[in-house]
Amino acid sequence: MRGFGPPRRELLVGAAAALVTAALIVVYLQQRSVERQEQQTTLVVQQVCEQTAMVLAARVRELFGAAVFETIEGITHPEIRAFDLQRMALAFKAGQQRHVYVDSFFLWRKVGQQHFPGEMLFFRHPSELQPGDAIIAGEDGEPLGGLYVNASQGSVILRLATTFARELRSFVVAERTIDGQDYQIILHYLWDDDSRQEYTTVVGYVVDLALVRRELFNRLQESELPRILNPDPSFPRLSLTVLDEQGEPVHGSPAIAGLPTASATIDLVFFPVDSLKPWLVAQPLGRRWSLVVSPASPVVTRAVFSYWLLGAVVFLIVIALFCAVTLDRQEQRLLQMQSDFVANVSHQLKTPLSLLAAASETLDLERVRSPEKTRQYAGIVRAQTARLSGLVEQILHFSRTDTTNGAYRFERLDLASLVRDSVHNFAASVSDDVAFQFENGGEVIPVRGDPTAIEQVVVNLLENSVKYGNGHTEVLVRVEARDGEAAIVVRDRGEGIDRADLPRVFDKFYRGRNSQGQRGFGLGLALVRAITHAHQGRVSVESDPGSGTEFRVFMPTIPEDQTHDGASAGC
């Protein structure tokens, strides 16, 4: 029969080990998957950062050289030679609006005009005009800008033009410090003829390097940079950090440690070096800035969300392990209950069987000679046979109740009368030392139930009171109706029930701490609860150790005018 019993503890340990191993394998595989996804995500982000840094550097390089193409080269030589101030003013005005690094445009002609003979003339935007400026008006009379003389910058630019003119090139890019500030000067010659023997005009612009460091990339952040750094809204947002030639931050915040980064370098030359290098006579060296591109925040990959799945799997494994342990404990408890039941049944049956065996053997051997002794042994046989029948009947009755709900036959009955008769019959079968008191008040309490089953409830409660009465001789039985419920109350003055046993007194096969030495299988109160529940009722118990115990059985009453009685099986 061992193979049909509960699984051995070794099987539970093996199942637990298998579940833990499965959990560890899942955790390991999930962790590997997460690591691979994070590596792939990091690689993709790294590649995007590198590509963005290259595109950004190329675009910044284009922006740095745009003023030459769009403004200096955009003004035709005939317009400059004709000194068409209106067209030049329009070009200079548009150039200062588009190219934020341009501090000012300048113009010099060998053939000076009456107001500025031989001077380097600087252009001022119409929004910045000052008194003394030569106003350039448009056809509608509105100012297009102004021309003014800056002696300190003009003299430096003229010396620069004179110095490099002998190289016979078209462009000069140089850095100079003027009045304590660093400037980059982009100068363009217009020669008199193809032999380049003499230049007639110089045009160009000045870049304030302090302004570049302070505002250039902040202004680009408002216009050019967002569409380059974040072309796809679904991709993590990128940020730009600009570092100068010494590695000091010029724009943006340092990249977050541990995130992918990419960088590209740019020469801080505001001139299209690559395309116009053959016509360039000089350019400054030593200023190489770095554009560092990185995610603006930690990248959250889809792998992170798989931790939810991992957590769910581990949670289910833990639940399964918990259920397995709980079932094992219940099976162990059931085994213990069954073992206790078998031991208790064996003990309870042993005494009457021994007495029956001894009495029957004595009668069989004809050792009894007198009629009085014969009647005595016959009484022993009758009493022990009745005892055995009662024990077996209790087991069979509980088995029917527990498995088939008793197949009760319900009918309309007076609960008070039934309980009173049950108490009277039980009192006649026990010692006269025990006094039973019944209280009802004479009221009829109609209920629908099985009279035999309800009588069994009363008898079991009375037996329990007598058994654990601890020598006290009074048992109170009260039947009352209140709020649509009938109540059977059985109270004794015995030793009471230990508080630790109260939650389990109605469990089958359970015997409390004060049950030692008492006959029974631990089925009486379990049978009371089963019958009560079958009658749509409930049962409760209150006990104070040393002061007695009170059991209450509640079941619904029926209206007095309800007349459809009769039997119904299995209700």
Fourth-level CATH superfamily of the domain at 408-556 = Histidine kinase-like ATPase, C-terminal domain
Low-pLDDT parts are 1-6, 563-571
From the alpha-carbon coordinates, what is the Rg to the nearest angstrom?
A: 55 Å
Strand numbers in spatial order across the main sheet: 3-4-2-1-7-6-5
Protein described:
By secondary structure, this protein is α+β, with helices and mostly antiparallel strands. Among the domains are: about 85-215, Beta-Lactamase, CATH 3.30.450; about 335-385; about 410-555, Histidine kinase-like ATPase, C-terminal domain (Heat Shock Protein 90, 2-Layer Sandwich). Helix content is about 45%, strand content about 20%. It has helices at about 10-70, 75-80, 85-100, 150-165, 210-225, 225-230, 275, 300-365, 370-405, 415-430, 450-465, 525-535, and strands at about 100-110, 120-125, 135, 145-150, 170-180, 180-190, 200-210, 240-245, 250, 260-265, 290-295, 410-415, 435-440, 445-450, 475-480, 485-490, 540-545, 550-555. The chain has a 7-stranded antiparallel β-sheet, with helices on both faces. Strands 13-15-16-18-17 form a 5-stranded mixed β-sheet, with helices on one face. The protein is rod-shaped and about 170 Å long.
